[in-house]
Amino acid sequence: MNPLRHTWRLIPLLAIAVLAVQPATLVRADTTPGAAKTEHKTSFAGNASITAKVKTALLADKITPGMKIDVDTNSGVVTLSGQVDNQTQKDRAAAIAAKTKGVTQVINHLTIKPNIPGKRKAGTVLNDAAITAKVKSGLLADKTAPGMKINVDTVKGIVTLSGEVDTAAQKQSSEAVAKKVKGVQGVINHLTVKTTPKPK
């Protein structure tokens, strides 16, 4: 048998093997703008999925008032805002969020509803409801305050604002809007300013 002839037969097979390996290497090293956009969309979808899971768990829980709690997720960091009735509900909400798959950190901005002594009469309750509606309308109409993100609660003319805003200016503007509403006896500003997670 001629060894040289055998060697020449192996060369085409080696060339095919090399070509077959190259595409796999290119896929792993893909840094095109399209790939970056896909990764960004996946990250956005992941945050939305986490928010949905946390909100669903809060609504299903018998202790936490899920309807009163706002949930926001950024890079796996969950921020809870809104107003609850007591410390137990606040702690419970944070624990539920922390147990959710994909959550890396929980920022608990929940506030506890102030306890104002004395029962409210029917007329007072109706008046408080009217004040709440007027404050909410004022916030929605204001150019600075993000009305959709702010929770408003009124007890005996005392208005409590809760939720998360983007800037300190929005927090101050929201309080100013509430104070101008007729019938408001005082404003408790529990609004929190959104924090930006530190880059890893």
Account of the 3D structure:
The relative contact order is 0.10. Helix content is 50%, strand content 22%. The chain has five helices and six strands. The chain starts with a helix and ends in a 7-residue tail after the last strand. It folds into two domains: 44-112, 2-Layer Sandwich (Histidine-containing Protein, Chain: A), CATH 3.30.1340; 122-193, Histidine-containing Protein, Chain: A. With 200 residues, the protein is α/β, with parallel strands linked by helices. The chain has helices spanning 3-28, 33-60, 87-99, 122-141, 168-180; strands at 69-74, 77-84, 105-112, 150-155, 158-165, 186-193.
Radius of gyration: 28 Å
Structural class: alpha/beta
The overall pLDDT, averaged over residues, is 78
Helix content: 40-55%
What is the tally of helical segments? 5
- Element order: H for helix, E for strand: HHEEHEHEEHE
Number of strands: 6
What general form does the structure show?
A: globular
Strand order of the largest sheet: 1-2-3
| Poorly predicted runs | 13-42
How much of the sequence lies in strands comes to: 15-25%
> In the CATH classification, which architecture of the largest domain applies?
2-Layer Sandwich
Question: In this structure, how is the largest beta sheet organized?
Answer: 3 strands, mixed
Distance between the termini: 64 Å
CATH class of the largest domain: Alpha Beta
CATH topology of the largest domain: Histidine-containing Protein, Chain: A
Give the domain tally. 2
